[in-house]
Design brief:
Helix 6 links the parallel strand 6 and strand 7. The chain has about 300 residues and is an alpha/beta fold.
């Protein structure tokens, strides 16, 4: 697999931490030419330095917010003015917020769509057409989520963005096939990234003594970003559409597809459990606009 990425131009979002950082460093070890972005300047600088130390070439690196179309388009123009089109484009950056519809603030709904869905769209519309014009094929990766395939409790806003990204990916899988551009959609479950530690739960105190153990249990079940990076690159090399990072998500999605009624009963029970666990820490509905969560 290492030979497949040697010398390949790879554009990654969310490169400052988590899955994005792990994937960038894995590609650096394989000799890829990296084009990196994130809104965390310090984290992005660390990833770029570490990638170079591993022997990778960081051709371009820029701090930006992928929800800002003009910023993404400007970076794309600058890259394509100095370099050939990408071989691999990886949409990894994302944010998360959980909550019931009576607790979620409007800015949380908005940030899920702006960053998790429109952000990848901004990248796709500015980086994929040059790949098509170059006629050399390539690959597009979109990181969705388990919440993009099953109905996890309190994930309405997050799922709105992640289901949308999965649907977009499925259409592009067929649209881009004639150009020899593969498309993979990654559906991670729990991953031990800064996103897990910083996720907002609307109206809930994460540090409440009855809530914190469940958050810790979720974190303890999480796989490493390095494991996810390996699965992503394996998915690219095998041109897989759905890339799973843990067997439990694969099994749950299969359960949903073949046994809808038992799945529905199970998910109702999970929802009741989720609500019962988080109820002791419930606070009044959020009306302020706290800062958005960290990226993958």
């Amino acid at each position: 697999m290492a030979d497949m990425f040697a010398g390949k131009r790879c554009f990654l979002t969310g490169a400052a931490s988590g899955i994005g950082r792990a994937t960038a460093l894995r590609l650096a070890r394989d000799g890829a030419e990296l084009y990196l972005t994130d809104r965390d300047a310090d984290g992005l600088e660390r990833t770029a330095a570490d990638a170079r130390a591993l022997g990778g070439r960081v051709a371009e690196c820029r701090v930006l917010d992928i929800s800002d179309y003009e910023a993404v388009a400007a970076f794309a123009r600058d890259i394509h003015a100095a370099h050939p089109p990408m071989d691999v484009v990886l949409n990894i950056a994302g944010v998360s917020a959980w909550g019931t519809v009576d607790r979620l603030a409007h800015h949380q709904w908005r940030s899920m769509i702006d960053i998790n869905l429109m952000g990848p769209i901004h990248v796709i519309e500015t980086f994929v057409p040059p790949m098509i014009a170059a006629r050399r094929g390539g690959h597009l990766v979109n990181v969705s989520s388990a919440a993009g395939v099953v109905a996890l409790p309190w994930h309405a806003a997050y799922s709105a963005s992640k289901y949308g990204l999965r649907g977009l990916s499925e259409v592009l899988r067929f649209d881009l096939a004639k150009h020899r551009i593969g498309v993979s959609v990654v559906v991670p479950g729990a991953v031990n990234t800064p996103l897990v530690k910083s996720v907002e739960i609307a109206g809930v105190d994460r540090d409440h003594p009855k809530v914190a153990p469940w958050v810790d249990r979720f974190s303890g079940h999480a796989v490493s970003p390095e494991h996810v990076a390996e699965r992503i690159l394996a998915g690219i090399s095998r041109n897989r559409f759905m890339v799973y990072t843990s067997p439990d998500i694969r099994a749950l999605y299969a359960f949903k597809r073949v046994a809808w009624w038992p799945y529905s009963v199970a998910m109702r029970q999970v929802n009741l459990l989720f609500t019962r666990v988080l109820k002791p820490a419930t606070a009044p509905p959020i009306s302020a606009n706290p800062s958005p969560t960290g990226e993958h």
